[in-house]
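Appendix B. One record, verbatim.
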Amino acid sequence: MAGILGMKGFDYNVTRSMFYVSYIVFEIPSNIVCKLLGPGWLLPSLTVLFRACSLGSGFVKTIPQMMGVRFLLGIFEAGMLPEIVYYLSRWYRRSELTFRLGLYLAAGPLAGAFGVLLASAILRLDHFGSVNSWRMVFVIEGIITVGLRLIGFVTMTDRPATARWLTEVEKQPSEDRVRSESVGQVKVLDKMDRKKLILGIWDLVVIGTSWIFLFCNVTVQGLRFFLPTIVRTSYSDYTVIKQQLYMVPSYAVGSVVTLLLPLISWRFDRRQLIMIISTPLGIAGYIIFLSTTNQFARYGATLLVASSVFSLGALASSQASANIVSDTARSSAMA
């Protein structure tokens, strides 16, 4: 991609960074809009728009065009994770939320593993219509996922009370079980209130957990960013397709642990303790990165990092959600 678009110097890094600029700016506003419009409509819309932009990446001709697409991708993905946490908190109790988030977040490394396999298969094609090379990956994956995500408009609903696939007998108990944990709340959904929005952002537990999530995300993004480089230097004699396949184990390990640790958290109703226990493996992995130049040891270290950091997103997000009572405050706190 860098060669075809004529990238030089820091062009590649700047292009990647455009995504994070819009992501940071639009994350809180996106979640507030989710509260106003309802996640049952907004989440499917954002996913379709995100994948449509991703598909468009296969047709860019210049660096500014790619930067523009990356900026739009950041806008549409900014609210995805916090909105999903917020959405699931309407359906599940505090002890149940961690594992449900784990099921969602496990799809991240799992998608990374299958994405690599799919990309390897796509790159074996000579062309797809008028596109070839790396452009085929964006176009084919974009077409598949846009089609699948349209199903969300039919299946998703704002909350149990509006679920078309629940009977009237099932709806009320579903809401009652969530409301039973909200001390002082008569209704599951309250009206939009600026004071509650501010309280959600400045809650001390939310701030502390945000720092945990920040450092966790730094390690996750670092792993995703440098894993291709580590594999490429460790197995420099291999073909591009084989190098891609060597990235699968790290994502596979991440998926398993992202399910296992939240499951343990749900079983014992403990989140902070599980977060503390899971971090040493990630620390050990980065110590190996810093202490050796052996590329095979560094490749092994990616498995240690993956077994630690991928699960922290579910644990940290559910911890913040569990300490916020009102629906409005939770909508801002999750961002």
